[in-house]
Specification:
heterodimer, A: alpha/beta, B: five-stranded parallel beta sheet, 50% helix, 10% strand
Chain lengths: 653, 399
Amino acid sequence: MSDTTNASTPTLVNKALYLSHFTPSMMAPETLETMLVQREPLLQRSLDHVLESLRTGSSHHTLFVGPRGIGKTHLISLLHHRLAQTEEAKSKALIAWMREEEWGVTSFFELVLRILRTVDASYPELQIEARTTPLYDLPLKEAEKLVESILLDVLGSKRLVVLLENLDDLFDQLGEQGQKAWRAFIQNHNNMVLVCTTPALFAGVSLQKSVFYGFFDIEALRKLDFEDVVSLLSKIAVERGDQELAAFIATSEGRARIRAVHHLAEGNPRIYIIFAQFLSAQALDELVPAFMHTLDELTPYYQARMKELPGQQRKIVEYLVNYRGAAPVKQIAKTCFITQQICSSQLKQLKDKRYVRSIEQGRESYYELCEPLMRLCMEVKKQRGEPISLFVEMLQIWYSETELQEWLKTPQEQRNFDSRHIEKAIEGLKMQGIEPKLKAQIHALGQCEGVEAEILLYKEIAQTRPINALSTKVRAFVLLTGARLPALCTSLKAELPQIKSAFQSILNQSETSLTRPKAVGIYTNLIVAHYGLFNLDRDAAQENVERLVTLLLQYPAHAVTSIMICGQLGTANEYQTWLTALLQSIEAHSNASGATKVQSIWCRMASAYSSWNEGKDPRSILSLSREERNLLLKLANDNSYSVSASFTVDEEK
Amino acid sequence: MKPNPGGMLQISDIVGRDSVVAYLQSTLEQQSILLVAERRTGKTHVLEKFKATAPVNWVVIKRDIGAIRSAHEFVQYLMADLYPYLEAKTNFRNWLQGLGEQIGGAQIGPVKLPNFAAKQWKQILSDTVAHLHDNHAMDRVVFLWDELPWMLEIIAKNNPQEAMELLDVLRALRQQHASKLRMVFTGSLGLHHIVRRLTALGYNNTPVNDMLAVEVEPLTQTDATGLVQRLFTDNGLSVTSPSVYEETAQTLDCIPFYIHHVVSALLKNSASSSQQLDMAAVHAVIDHGIHSSDNPWDLQHYEERTQDYYQLQRAECLALLDVVASQIAPLPMVDAIRLAKAAYPLVEQQQWIELSRLLERDHYFIRNAASEVSFKFTVVKRWWVWHRGLTVQHKGEEA
């Protein structure tokens, strides 16, 4: 599949295929350098450690940890490339780059043999093969000692840098005796520097009773965040010679699509490389088979992992494959028809075996799959020839219904791909739910840290145009919440008609659904929205204030609570201006007793809350009514009472 | 100096071990040593430093023997290690030639040994060591045998008798060649555990009662503070106050392994290089090491090994550990026993006293002159309190 011979003058398809068969250890170093994102500091640090070991008498051993597809081989390949070019490596070291799998190594003796073979291939001038040939005529015990002597002789005064993948598998094969022999060799001769990888931390390096406990400096590879992904896909586009695509990725629409893909790919670079195949419409009909081929290569590995599991554990993993996200133990147990105790015990074993990881949230434990690639491959297996849902979602995110319909017009005999994926994607788009791009943007809003990031995201939303009616409506509402930020007002004024219409919709909806238990949530949404409208167009805000006030007066204590929650909005001056205007409106649009009631509740609750916050004395709020007291207590203790909590989208509504 | 958690440092970067090295040297003038410490305390670095600074007329031979599978193989390595110092001596060469044919003999490094498989390993070992006296230039020959308990464990699995005999022969050699020969045993596994297992199989001797047990302690506060400062400054980390160095060292019990780990973790955070670090930033890293469910420092090991170490008394052991961990200050041993006894009233007082002694031996507790006990390592204590959900009480308060 890969076409390295054409790498210098590739066609678009050839280049895409070359990337799609992503085998870093066989790729040109320049390509690997180009495609490195996020990890330059890590790579440089690791290189520095090896060079320090070569320059001094120290030995710094590194272990990269991360699930399949996270970029470990890419990192090792680049490390090898950079290291090999240094003067230290040329004069003071031999490098043994053990590529991918070392099957059949069941003893330290066999490991040394493999190392010698690897070194022989890279340094033929050392004539190692001639030295190792006599080993095969010796009894094993003699051969074991002689092979170490040969390695020492080959090295002379140089040090051996061993780059080795899947250390966990190797340790399993070596067993304790082999590990002890290896460790003894390293300690006795101090001439070996190890840089290894593993999909997850394992007992052989992390338990105090293990031979190699504490031996390695552990470097955990992080998932790619959104900006890393944008950078990676841009680089892939440039690598493919597709400047148009690279420019598109930089646009708001491009970023919005990538954001939607981001949540599917869970930060795993290998999945992005696969998705990158779909970024160019021209390449699609050639790349679908390539995508399937990539999955086909990975699937047997994950199928084998599943077969290793006992029945109950397999059931749990299958559930998590389908669930897509972190699920609480209770839910897993219920769905798998096992007790919670058994489920917890099985999950602990799965965690030790590195199938799942746990996330603690308060007292509850959530579990999710360690490896997103596993989900992808298991879906392929499970769906047995049916369209792969992840693939279909990707198509829905990246292409419009029109573009997908165009492909279907390709004559049957010219098609290289299974058109059911396209048909399914079109079907999904027609269902008119909230578009994945918008969903991803709203999700990202809820996770934003800092006003700057929020502003950038709102601008992205403003610049991307949904297609279906529901998404258009939801987008307008989201922009309404953004209008509270002064920096956005100018750019959002162009959307004023839609935003006004969105506010009307919210008012209508609130009038029908308002109840006492839901009042604070509904009022908070309304106030945030009205404040946004106020910033954009005071007249528009004024037009709707009577209806707003009518709603707020139904549960005045709840309204006051919502106003206090929204004290997080804007700067003091802007908020004060709006609040003053709102309170004046309340006075103007209600009868005397209604206005007085809101004013007095406001004074009472705000004063009590302020005293309580300053002195942390709960007695400050004892003078309030029970309802007012409970509202303030919830305000102090409950995260659901916050402005960001109002950023949720309920598709049913 | 770059942080290098778990790796091998160059000699000049081994900080604060001069006094223990000097103590080793002065002790080895008189007797052999059993070097004891928890894992990753720095035993190997102490041995390296000792070897590098030993007197010129001492021959110091260091070897990790943890993978050796038989006494015969052990003798092969010993012969290979002594060979460079004896090959010039006619007696030795003649003796070696008389041992057996070269064919079938092991090659260890550059040394090709004869095949003496047919001979008794005990005799070969004794004869080899006897040849030490051929070389008068060697005042002392010191064998530093790292991971000796692992070797004995492997040998004992297949042939417990051989393990017992090897221990006895080594002891006899120390006695016979007391003027010249010294041994230092050390390892990740305590030798007493191996001897206990052999005892259960009928071994009645005390094979190391002629050796002085020397414990490798954490660094002194001064040395640990210096190490922290050096690692920070050499790697471009600045602090809000010099007290950060001292407090970091103290919080990590002056253990170099944890110090290197924490500095390494700080360097991995890009924010560390651009702003001054205070103790809050350092504590965040330390807290992760102690409290993370990933268990990066494997502090879980301290709880798990009580199963193996204390077996039928494990429950009482855990009760005693919980009691002491729950106190912010050292607790009189009698009070600790009294509180633990509340849960296990039928256990005799003497058993509690013995249990407390074992917990000291195994580095859980430390006892001061006033017979008050506390956790030896605050890192372990903090993990223990967190993991077992204990509440720390001030002196005088009781649950």
